[in-house]
Amino acid sequence: MKKAFLLFATLGCSISWVPTYATTITINLGPPGRVTGEKIVSFSGLNDLQLNGQTLSLDLVFSGNGFVRLFKSTSPTFLLLPMLDVFGAGTINDPTGSGYLFDETGKPISSVTSFGGSVTSDPGGEAFRLALGGFFPLLADETGRPAEDVPFPLDIYGAHLDITLPNGPAFDVTGGELGLFPNASQRWNNQFQIGDVPDSGCTLFLALTAVVLLFSLDAAMRRCPSSQRLLRPRRSSVVS
Q: Where are the domains of the chain?
Protein backbone atom coordinates (compact mmCIF):
# COMPACT_ATOMS: atom_id res chain seq x y z
CA MET A 1 0.00 0.00 0.00
CA LYS A 2 1.50 3.33 -1.09
CA LYS A 3 -0.07 5.46 1.64
CA ALA A 4 -0.71 4.93 5.32
CA PHE A 5 -2.48 1.70 6.26
CA LEU A 6 -5.05 3.59 8.28
CA LEU A 7 -6.21 7.05 7.25
CA PHE A 8 -9.02 8.86 9.00
CA ALA A 9 -12.12 10.12 7.23
CA THR A 10 -12.64 13.84 6.71
CA LEU A 11 -15.62 14.48 8.92
CA GLY A 12 -17.37 17.71 9.80
CA CYS A 13 -17.59 18.05 13.56
CA SER A 14 -20.81 20.02 13.98
CA ILE A 15 -23.41 18.16 16.02
CA SER A 16 -27.11 18.31 15.33
CA TRP A 17 -29.08 16.54 18.04
CA VAL A 18 -32.07 15.68 15.82
CA PRO A 19 -33.53 12.16 16.01
CA THR A 20 -33.18 10.47 12.60
CA TYR A 21 -33.71 6.95 11.36
CA ALA A 22 -30.51 4.98 11.60
CA THR A 23 -29.40 1.45 10.80
CA THR A 24 -28.40 -0.28 14.03
CA ILE A 25 -25.20 -2.31 14.02
CA THR A 26 -24.78 -4.48 17.13
CA ILE A 27 -21.23 -5.08 18.35
CA ASN A 28 -20.23 -7.74 20.87
CA LEU A 29 -17.38 -6.41 23.00
CA GLY A 30 -16.74 -9.78 24.62
CA PRO A 31 -16.82 -10.71 28.31
CA PRO A 32 -16.50 -8.01 31.01
CA GLY A 33 -12.99 -7.32 32.20
CA ARG A 34 -10.11 -4.89 32.50
CA VAL A 35 -8.13 -4.41 29.30
CA THR A 36 -4.51 -3.34 29.03
CA GLY A 37 -3.52 -2.25 25.54
CA GLU A 38 -5.59 -2.18 22.38
CA LYS A 39 -8.70 -4.23 21.65
CA ILE A 40 -10.24 -4.84 18.22
CA VAL A 41 -13.64 -6.52 17.77
CA SER A 42 -15.36 -7.49 14.54
CA PHE A 43 -18.92 -6.72 13.52
CA SER A 44 -21.15 -7.57 10.58
CA GLY A 45 -24.15 -5.82 9.05
CA LEU A 46 -22.23 -3.86 6.43
CA ASN A 47 -20.73 -6.83 4.60
CA ASP A 48 -21.05 -6.71 0.80
CA LEU A 49 -21.96 -3.01 0.98
CA GLN A 50 -21.61 -1.27 -2.37
CA LEU A 51 -19.52 1.90 -2.24
CA ASN A 52 -21.45 4.14 -4.62
CA GLY A 53 -21.41 7.48 -2.80
CA GLN A 54 -24.55 6.86 -0.74
CA THR A 55 -25.23 8.50 2.64
CA LEU A 56 -25.75 6.26 5.68
CA SER A 57 -26.99 6.92 9.20
CA LEU A 58 -25.55 4.31 11.57
CA ASP A 59 -25.96 3.53 15.26
CA LEU A 60 -23.16 1.31 16.59
CA VAL A 61 -24.43 -0.17 19.86
CA PHE A 62 -22.91 -2.76 22.20
CA SER A 63 -24.81 -5.98 22.80
CA GLY A 64 -26.10 -6.96 26.24
CA ASN A 65 -26.22 -3.32 27.36
CA GLY A 66 -22.42 -3.40 27.32
CA PHE A 67 -20.21 -0.35 27.50
CA VAL A 68 -16.61 0.84 27.36
CA ARG A 69 -15.47 2.41 30.65
CA LEU A 70 -12.62 4.92 30.70
CA PHE A 71 -10.84 5.89 33.92
CA LYS A 72 -9.09 9.06 35.02
CA SER A 73 -5.80 7.24 34.51
CA THR A 74 -6.71 6.20 30.94
CA SER A 75 -4.62 7.98 28.33
CA PRO A 76 -6.27 11.23 27.12
CA THR A 77 -5.45 10.16 23.56
CA PHE A 78 -7.74 7.11 23.85
CA LEU A 79 -9.19 6.47 20.38
CA LEU A 80 -12.42 4.68 19.45
CA LEU A 81 -12.22 3.89 15.74
CA PRO A 82 -14.93 2.16 13.65
CA MET A 83 -13.54 0.76 10.39
CA LEU A 84 -14.64 -1.11 7.29
CA ASP A 85 -12.63 -4.05 5.96
CA VAL A 86 -12.27 -3.36 2.24
CA PHE A 87 -10.68 -5.19 -0.69
CA GLY A 88 -9.94 -3.58 -4.04
CA ALA A 89 -7.43 -2.07 -6.44
CA GLY A 90 -6.80 1.60 -7.11
CA THR A 91 -7.37 4.72 -5.00
CA ILE A 92 -10.37 5.36 -2.76
CA ASN A 93 -11.25 8.37 -0.62
CA ASP A 94 -12.27 8.09 3.01
CA PRO A 95 -15.92 8.62 3.99
CA THR A 96 -17.09 12.09 5.06
CA GLY A 97 -19.74 13.19 7.54
CA SER A 98 -20.22 13.68 11.27
CA GLY A 99 -20.86 11.66 14.40
CA TYR A 100 -20.73 11.39 18.18
CA LEU A 101 -20.36 8.90 20.99
CA PHE A 102 -23.31 8.54 23.38
CA ASP A 103 -24.00 7.48 26.96
CA GLU A 104 -26.60 5.08 28.40
CA THR A 105 -29.44 7.54 27.73
CA GLY A 106 -28.34 8.29 24.17
CA LYS A 107 -26.95 11.71 25.09
CA PRO A 108 -23.89 12.75 23.02
CA ILE A 109 -20.55 12.51 24.82
CA SER A 110 -18.01 13.52 22.19
CA SER A 111 -18.03 14.47 18.52
CA VAL A 112 -15.92 12.77 15.89
CA THR A 113 -12.42 14.02 15.18
CA SER A 114 -10.59 12.85 12.07
CA PHE A 115 -8.10 13.93 9.46
CA GLY A 116 -9.17 12.77 6.04
CA GLY A 117 -7.24 11.32 3.15
CA SER A 118 -7.36 8.44 0.75
CA VAL A 119 -5.97 4.95 0.37
CA THR A 120 -4.12 3.62 -2.65
CA SER A 121 -3.81 -0.16 -2.90
CA ASP A 122 -1.63 -2.39 -5.03
CA PRO A 123 -2.64 -2.77 -8.70
CA GLY A 124 -3.50 -6.43 -8.15
CA GLY A 125 -5.86 -5.69 -5.29
CA GLU A 126 -5.28 -5.41 -1.56
CA ALA A 127 -7.19 -5.78 1.72
CA PHE A 128 -7.11 -2.82 4.10
CA ARG A 129 -9.14 -0.96 6.70
CA LEU A 130 -11.09 2.16 5.80
CA ALA A 131 -11.74 4.39 8.83
CA LEU A 132 -15.26 5.76 9.28
CA GLY A 133 -14.08 8.39 11.78
CA GLY A 134 -12.02 8.65 14.95
CA PHE A 135 -13.44 9.53 18.37
CA PHE A 136 -11.24 10.96 21.16
CA PRO A 137 -13.68 11.13 24.12
CA LEU A 138 -11.08 12.38 26.62
CA LEU A 139 -9.94 15.35 24.54
CA ALA A 140 -11.66 18.70 24.11
CA ASP A 141 -13.62 18.71 20.87
CA GLU A 142 -15.87 20.88 18.72
CA THR A 143 -18.84 20.35 21.04
CA GLY A 144 -17.20 22.95 23.28
CA ARG A 145 -16.80 20.68 26.30
CA PRO A 146 -13.38 21.20 27.95
CA ALA A 147 -11.36 18.05 28.53
CA GLU A 148 -11.23 18.75 32.28
CA ASP A 149 -15.05 18.50 32.46
CA VAL A 150 -15.05 14.80 31.56
CA PRO A 151 -16.81 12.80 34.31
CA PHE A 152 -15.06 9.66 35.56
CA PRO A 153 -15.54 6.86 35.08
CA LEU A 154 -16.78 7.65 31.57
CA ASP A 155 -19.09 4.95 30.15
CA ILE A 156 -19.55 4.79 26.37
CA TYR A 157 -22.56 2.85 25.11
CA GLY A 158 -22.16 3.37 21.38
CA ALA A 159 -21.56 5.73 18.47
CA HIS A 160 -23.76 7.48 15.92
CA LEU A 161 -22.49 8.27 12.43
CA ASP A 162 -23.99 10.20 9.53
CA ILE A 163 -21.58 9.50 6.70
CA THR A 164 -21.30 9.69 2.95
CA LEU A 165 -19.39 6.78 1.51
CA PRO A 166 -16.89 7.22 -1.32
CA ASN A 167 -17.74 6.24 -4.85
CA GLY A 168 -15.58 3.16 -5.32
CA PRO A 169 -17.21 0.41 -7.41
CA ALA A 170 -13.84 -1.38 -7.67
CA PHE A 171 -13.82 -1.97 -3.89
CA ASP A 172 -15.82 -4.48 -1.86
CA VAL A 173 -16.67 -4.28 1.85
CA THR A 174 -15.84 -7.62 3.47
CA GLY A 175 -16.58 -6.80 7.13
CA GLY A 176 -16.25 -4.26 9.89
CA GLU A 177 -14.14 -3.74 12.99
CA LEU A 178 -14.16 -1.49 16.02
CA GLY A 179 -10.77 -0.52 17.41
CA LEU A 180 -10.19 0.65 21.01
CA PHE A 181 -6.71 2.18 21.23
CA PRO A 182 -5.39 3.76 24.47
CA ASN A 183 -2.24 4.92 22.63
CA ALA A 184 -0.18 5.13 25.84
CA SER A 185 3.34 3.99 26.70
CA GLN A 186 2.71 3.47 30.43
CA ARG A 187 0.78 0.39 31.54
CA TRP A 188 -1.51 2.28 33.94
CA ASN A 189 -2.46 4.74 31.16
CA ASN A 190 -3.15 1.88 28.79
CA GLN A 191 -6.09 0.47 30.75
CA PHE A 192 -9.82 0.64 30.26
CA GLN A 193 -12.74 -1.67 31.06
CA ILE A 194 -15.42 -3.62 29.22
CA GLY A 195 -18.75 -3.72 31.11
CA ASP A 196 -19.20 -4.30 34.83
CA VAL A 197 -16.41 -6.36 36.37
CA PRO A 198 -17.54 -8.60 39.28
CA ASP A 199 -15.45 -8.91 42.42
CA SER A 200 -12.60 -11.35 42.09
CA GLY A 201 -12.35 -14.53 44.15
CA CYS A 202 -9.64 -12.91 46.28
CA THR A 203 -11.88 -9.98 47.19
CA LEU A 204 -14.73 -12.34 48.08
CA PHE A 205 -12.40 -14.45 50.26
CA LEU A 206 -11.21 -11.37 52.16
CA ALA A 207 -14.80 -10.27 52.74
CA LEU A 208 -15.79 -13.69 54.10
CA THR A 209 -12.71 -13.73 56.34
CA ALA A 210 -13.65 -10.35 57.78
CA VAL A 211 -17.20 -11.54 58.53
CA VAL A 212 -15.92 -14.66 60.30
CA LEU A 213 -13.53 -12.59 62.42
CA LEU A 214 -16.31 -10.21 63.43
CA PHE A 215 -18.55 -13.07 64.55
CA SER A 216 -15.68 -14.66 66.46
CA LEU A 217 -14.90 -11.38 68.24
CA ASP A 218 -18.55 -10.87 69.16
CA ALA A 219 -18.81 -14.38 70.58
CA ALA A 220 -15.62 -13.87 72.65
CA MET A 221 -16.92 -10.63 74.11
CA ARG A 222 -20.20 -12.30 75.05
CA ARG A 223 -18.34 -15.05 76.92
CA CYS A 224 -16.02 -12.66 78.73
CA PRO A 225 -18.38 -11.41 81.55
CA SER A 226 -19.50 -14.91 82.53
CA SER A 227 -15.90 -16.11 82.65
CA GLN A 228 -14.95 -13.28 84.96
CA ARG A 229 -17.78 -14.18 87.36
CA LEU A 230 -16.64 -17.81 87.46
CA LEU A 231 -13.01 -16.86 88.21
CA ARG A 232 -13.82 -14.17 90.82
CA PRO A 233 -13.01 -15.53 94.41
CA ARG A 234 -15.85 -15.71 96.90
CA ARG A 235 -15.68 -13.52 100.02
CA SER A 236 -15.66 -15.45 103.29
CA SER A 237 -18.01 -14.34 106.04
CA VAL A 238 -16.61 -13.62 109.52
CA VAL A 239 -18.71 -14.65 112.46
CA SER A 240 -18.07 -12.59 115.53
A: 10-194
